[in-house]
Write a structure and sequence with these properties.
With 528 residues, this protein is α+β, with helices and mostly antiparallel strands. It contains 12 helices and 13 strands.
Length: 528
């Protein structure tokens, strides 16, 4: 029992109650003793002076033998008193005690002088020459005694039934009743405190059971029966809410780990496939040239070398993409933001793709505003992202199709969008088109050597610019785009291009941000 928090609190409470009982007993004992001493000293305050008046100076004259008579009288009539005749320095001249019973030969005179003062604060304790360990109440009177000059009759008052600490309590009905009342009150308080502690710790016990079950599942099971997720309340409510949030975070991270592990296995499989195919083709053609080189014509040799060169270029492109993605995923990727004109960058990139587009009989065009605020970003990385998007559109747009790159100025951010008239993206492929090495099943056979890294690299570049890639697709048309912040935090108040258009079927957003208002949800973009 005492291993639990409830048991420990009860043990502390019991110990505290016992301490309180002991303290109360000591206080009662001290109070009763002090009260008894005060009463005794007040009752017998003038007793010494009366003895002197009646027996030492019966006729107003000193009777030298009177002290022995006083001592004998006290031994017989009132044995509660021990009588001492002392001089002005406290030295004992005579005593009613038996010979050899004294522990001290003198007493302290300060309490006697305080007692003889006007209106003293009683009780006043003085020395007991017969017992050097205890100080007792007394009564005293001053007298003149030749040849000792000033002298004192010092009467020590003793109890008839001892002076133990417990004796006053045993002798007093009031004290016994008070002790019973206090004991009963403490018992009731202890019982009530135990009930209150039980109520307070019940939620902690329930939370501990939930945490134990969660631990038994290997921190992989839902912590059923947990406390409410309280943002307010007492410390126990906040502790329960924190545990539930922590459990949710652990479960989410474990799901992410499982998903990451699954993606890792798929990534290894895809890399193995994408590396093995060109390597096998490259090796086969080179081995053919080596074994049959003397029997091949020059044209056949040139054909084999061209195929081997294309396969090596594909390998080089894959390795370069992996290396670039690794650099972007590093803890401190090299990002050098600067203000630049987005429309000028788009025009420069489109000029580089004019020849490739014309060879595939694809029309490529730009939709750019006449005036455009400067945007901020790493111009080299943004160029790479745009190139990847346009290359992706060229790869999956058939002959006679069209690719449009549009730039619009929003109120707070500028939007760049690449739209093509390709076959579109299946709804099942939309959530994964930005995954590394992912290619939809329809596109894998005609990927034209693509490794599936282009959109993943573009997505990572935009994440480094606090942006995200968004895609919207329907059969025969796909649009993909992103936003960039204006340089200097500029806010364009015109709001041009900020009104959203109706979404088309199959729209999807990859990343934390929603589809920009200026991004028209149309187009067809095959996964890179």
């Amino acid at each position: 029992m005492f291993g639990s928090l409830y048991g420990k609190l009860i043990a502390v409470l019991i110990a505290f109650a016992l301490i309180m009982v002991a303290v109360f007993a000591l206080i009662m004992s001290y109070s009763a003793t002090a009260r008894r001493q005060e009463v005794s000293q007040r009752v017998y305050r003038t007793y010494a002076s009366q003895l002197v008046k009646e027996r030492v100076f019966p006729d107003g004259h000193l009777d030298p033998s009177a002290f022995e008579q006083v001592f004998d009288y006290l031994r017989v009539v009132n044995p509660r008193f021990d009588a001492y005749l002392i001089d002005a320095n406290g030295a004992i001249l005579a005593t009613s005690s038996k010979a050899g019973a004294l522990k001290h030969k003198s007493v302290d005179m300060r309490p006697i002088r305080d007692f003889l003062a006007e209106d003293p604060a009683l009780p006043i304790l003085g020395d007991d020459p017969a017992d050097g360990r205890i100080r007792r109440v007394f009564t005293a009177t001053r007298l003149g005694l030749e040849p000792h000059g000033e002298a004192y009759l010092y009467l020590v008052i003793k109890g008839t039934r001892g002076d133990s600490a417990a004796q006053p309590i045993l002798d007093s009905y009031v004290l016994r009743e008070n002790a019973m009342l206090v004991g009963g009150g403490l018992a009731l308080a202890l019982l009530a405190s135990a009930l209150i502690i039980g109520l307070l710790t019940r939620r902690l016990q329930r939370l501990a059971r939930v945490m134990d079950r969660f631990r038994e599942t290997g921190f992989a099971g839902e912590p059923a029966g947990g406390a409410a997720r309280a943002e307010r309340g007492d410390e126990i409510d906040r502790l329960a809410g924190t545990f539930n949030a922590m459990a949710d975070r652990i479960l989410a991270q474990m799901r992410e780990l499982r998903q990451t592990d699954s993606m890792r296995r798929e990534l290894v499989a895809n890399i193995s496939h994408d590396l093995r195919t060109p390597l096998a083709s490259l090796r086969g053609h080179l081995e053919t040239l080596q074994s049959k080189g003397d029997r091949l014509t020059e044209e056949e040799k040139r054909g084999y070398l061209e195929i081997a060169l294309r396969q090596s270029e594909q390998l080089s492109h894959l390795v370069a993409g992996l290396f670039e993605l690794a650099k972007l995923d590093s803890e401190r990727p090299a990002v050098l933001p600067e203000p630049f004109v987005l429309t000028d960058l788009v025009q420069d990139i489109l000029q580089q793709f004019e020849l490739a587009a014309s060879q595939k009989q694809i029309r490529i065009a730009a939709d750019l505003p006449l005036e455009m605020p400067l945007v901020v970003g790493d111009i080299g990385l943004i160029e790479r992202a745009l190139r990847n998007l346009i290359e992706n559109s060229l790869r999956y747009t058939p002959a006679g199709g069209e690719i449009t790159v549009a730039v619009t100025a929003g109120q707070a951010r500028a939007t760049a969008q690449v739209t093509d008239s390709g076959c579109g993206i299946d709804a099942a492929d939309l959530p994964r088109i930005f995954d590394r090495f992912y290619r939809g099943e329809k596109s894998r056979s005609d990927a034209s050597g693509s490794a599936g890294l282009g959109l993943a690299i573009a997505k990572r570049i935009l994440e480094l610019h606090d942006s995200t890639l968004t895609v919207a697709s329907e059969p025969g048309r796909t649009a993909i785009g992103f936003t960039l912040a204006y340089a200097g935090g500029r806010d364009v108040s015109s709001g041009a291009g900020d009104r959203p258009e109706p979404e088309a079927a199959g729209n999807a957003t990859i990343g934390p941000a929603a589809v920009p208002a200026a991004l028209k949800p149309l187009g067809g973009l095959g996964p890179n």
